[in-house]
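Propose amino acids for all 308 sites.
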C-alpha cells in the first residue's frame, strides 16, 4: 500500500511559494512570500520521461531517438522518489509510445500511490482500449493525445485511420481529464480550426500547440507558417484554452507567472537511455548515475554555466 500524500503540494522558488493540487489542477502562487534561496526546491517543477523509444508509428517530424532503449522500472521509481522529495510537482511519461512499455500501469500506480507527483502521459491514442484504461484508472491525473491534423491530413501524416482515433476519445474521457497535442507545420496548420472544434466536441480541456522543431534533416515549421500561426493565436477566441511548448513560444502572446523559475529549475527531460537533458529536442545530456537525478542536474548546470 502506498503512503498517504497531502492534498496540496508546495515548492519554494524565486517567485514565491507555489501550491499545487494534482487532483483538481489548482495552482496557487503566493508571490508575496519570498523564501531565502537556500530553501528553494532543487528539482525541476516538471520532468518528462521517455519510457521507451519504441513506437508503432513513423511520423517524419518525430523528435524521439530511433535507437532501441527502454527505462528500467526499479531505477525509474528511485528517481521518482527523489524528484518528489526535492519539490518536483509533476511527471510526464512519453516516448516513443509509452503504452508500448509493458509496465506503464505499474509505473503510474507507483507514482500516484507513493509520491505526491501529478502523473500524466502523452500517447498517440491508437492503443488505448478499455482494458488498459481500467489498469490506469485512478493512477493518472491528465492524459495528452497527439492529433496532428484531422481526417485525411491525420491519416497521411500518422498512417492510421482517423476514425480509429475518434473511437478512443470516449475511453480517455472516462480515464482522466485530457488535452490535445497538435504539431503545427504547413500540412497541419489549415486544419487548426477544425481541430479546435473537434477537441471541444470530444471533451478536451486544453489544446497544446507544438510548432514543428528541426529534427533529422527537417527544418521545422517554416517562417510563413510560423507567422500565420502567430496571427491565428492573436485573434483566437475559441472554446478551449491554448498553450504552447517553450521551444515554439517565440513571439507568442504567452503568460508566464513565474519568470524567475526558468531553465532546469522549471523543466527537464529524461530520455529512454537514462540521460538527463534540458529538453526532449536536445541530443546532448548527462547520464544519470548511481547518485541520482539531482546530481545529474548539477552536472548539466555546471557544463554550460547555468545558474539557479
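Proposal:
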Amino acid at each position: 500500500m502506498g503512503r498517504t500524500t497531502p492534498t496540496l503540494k508546495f515548492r519554494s522558488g524565486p517567485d514565491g511559494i507555489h501550491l499545487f493540487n494534482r487532483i483538481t489542477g489548482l495552482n496557487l502562487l503566493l508571490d508575496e512570500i519570498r523564501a531565502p534561496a537556500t530553501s528553494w526546491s532543487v528539482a525541476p517543477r516538471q520532468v518528462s520521461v521517455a519510457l521507451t523509444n519504441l513506437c508503432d508509428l513513423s511520423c517524419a517530424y518525430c523528435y524521439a531517438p530511433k535507437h532501441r532503449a527502454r527505462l528500467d522500472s526499479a531505477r525509474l521509481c528511485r528517481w521518482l522518489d527523489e524528484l518528489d522529495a526535492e519539490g518536483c510537482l509533476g511527471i510526464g511519461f512519453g516516448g516513443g509510445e509509452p503504452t508500448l512499455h509493458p509496465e506503464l500501469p505499474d509505473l503510474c500506480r507507483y507514482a500516484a500511490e507513493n509520491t505526491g507527483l501529478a502523473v500524466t502521459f502523452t500517447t498517440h491514442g491508437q492503443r488505448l482500449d478499455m482494458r488498459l484504461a481500467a489498469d490506469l484508472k485512478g493512477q493518472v491525473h491528465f492524459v495528452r493525445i497527439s492529433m496532428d491534423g484531422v481526417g485525411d491530413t491525420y491519416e497521411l501524416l500518422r498512417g492510421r485511420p482517423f476514425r480509429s482515433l475518434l473511437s478512443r476519445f470516449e475511453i480517455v474521457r472516462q480515464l482522466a481529464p485530457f488535452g490535445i497535442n497538435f504539431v503545427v507545420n504547413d500540412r497541419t496548420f489549415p486544419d487548426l480550426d477544425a481541430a479546435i472544434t473537434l477537441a471541444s466536441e470530444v471533451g478536451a480541456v486544453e489544446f497544446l500547440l507544438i510548432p514543428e522543431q528541426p529534427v533529422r534533416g527537417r527544418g521545422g515549421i517554416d517562417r510563413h507558417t510560423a507567422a500565420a500561426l502567430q496571427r491565428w493565436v492573436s485573434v483566437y477566441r475559441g472554446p478551449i484554452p491554448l498553450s504552447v511548448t517553450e521551444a515554439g513560444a517565440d513571439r507568442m502572446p504567452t503568460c508566464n507567472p513565474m519568470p524567475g523559475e526558468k531553465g532546469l529549475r522549471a523543466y527537464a527531460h529524461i530520455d529512454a537511455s537514462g540521460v538527463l537533458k534540458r529538453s526532449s529536442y536536445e541530443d546532448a545530456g548527462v547520464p544519470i548515475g548511481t547518485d541520482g537525478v539531482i546530481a545529474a542536474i548539477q552536472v548539466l548546470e555546471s557544463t554550460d554555466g547555468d545558474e539557479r
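The chain has a mean pLDDT of 93. Residues 162-175 form the longest helix (14 residues).
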